[in-house]
Amino acid sequence: MPYAPSKNARLYYEETGKGTPIVFVHEFSGDLRSWEDQVRHFSRHHRCIAFNARGYPPSDVPKSWTKYSQTIATDDIAAVMRHLGLRRANIIGCSMGAAATLHFGLRYPRMAQSLTLIGAGSGSDPQKRKQFLRDTATRAREFETLALQDIAKTYRNAPNRVQLLHKDPRAWREFRVRFCEHSGAGHANTLRGIQARRPSIYSLERSLRRLKVPLHVVVGDEDENALDAGVFIKRCCAAARLSVVPATGHVVNLEEAAHFHRITDEFLAQVESRRWRPQITKK
Questions:
Q1: Which residues contact 187 (CB under 8 A, 6 or more apart)?
Q2: Per-residue pLDDT at 28
Q3: Torsion region of 139: left, alpha or beta (phi above 0 gives left; psi -120 to 50 gives alpha)
Q4: How far apart are CA 143 and CA 147, in angstroms?
Q5: 280: burial class by Cβ within 10 Å (0-12, 13-18, 19+)?
Q6: What is the pTM of this model?
Q7: CA–CA separation, 276 and 181 (whole Å)
Q8: Bridge partner residues of 220 (DSSP)
Q9: What one-character DSSP code corresponds to residue 52?
Q10: What's the CA gap between 260 and 119, in Å, rounded?
Q11: Strands 10-16, 3-5: pairing kind
């Protein structure tokens, strides 16, 4: 099995296709298999790399939560790229992976040809921050004490998840099966080390205003926290474009794969042909 070494962990990855690289970074409740539709589509013209984050088997699951952080998650993307000899790549991330993708663009701008964020912003609302941290601590304890099958049931009617169940029951079942194959310890450590300690997107305003890497923010209009954060990024960052997908929740790439492919193809074509230009009105 192919692994990339990175800071006390080996990261399992898969690659398909040839061409300009795309690196996919998965969400908290997913893994590299969440990108199957995207890998099938984009590998026709790109070299596609998807990897499992630390804490997600068959990647290593470090036992201490101190081996997990937003900085480490960002460095893990760079480690996979260096292992594969990639100088630059288009980075596409969802939710937790979107946060890592954004921080990658801020920390490693020369390695990022473009950034695509799906559903970024969970836990960023300052008015809901304390409740988010309490909920995160509770969820971490649940992952240590409950079966993953029981935890998966809570996603069924979550406002930002239920659309997947309604639109594509088969995709929902696949999501649930894959989730139940994860590591409870890995999830608990990810919650404590990354989710509870990553900075709010609203605290990144100065960095966002300086960002020059082409940035595509994709959000479902029923994903409230991510929608607000997406509008904030758009207002701050001249490098950003915002796509809001109607009647869609958190995982746009699963709920509306064809639409996501279409808007991402257009974005990548502009970037790779050097026709993409930032706005000139941001100050």
A1: 28, 55, 140, 143
A2: 97
A3: alpha
A4: 7
A5: exposed
A6: 0.96
A7: 40
A8: 245
A9: P
A10: 12
A11: antiparallel
pLDDT in tens, 22-71: 999 999 999 999 999 999 999 999 999 999 999 999 999 999 999 999 99
pLDDT at position 281, please? 56
Tokens describing residue 221: 């209009």
Question: How do strand 89-94 and strand 112-118 relate by DSSP bridges?
Answer: parallel
Place of tokens 């912003």: 121
Three-state DSSP at 125 gives: coil
- Pair 229, 121: CB distance under 8 Å: yes
C-alpha of 252 from chain center: 11
Question: Are the CB atoms for 217 and 114 separated by under 8 Å?
Answer: no
Tell me how far apart the alpha carbons of residues 136 and 125 are, in angstroms, rounded to a whole number: 14
Q: What is the pLDDT of residues 7-32, one digit of tens each?
A: 999 999 999 999 999 999 999 999 99
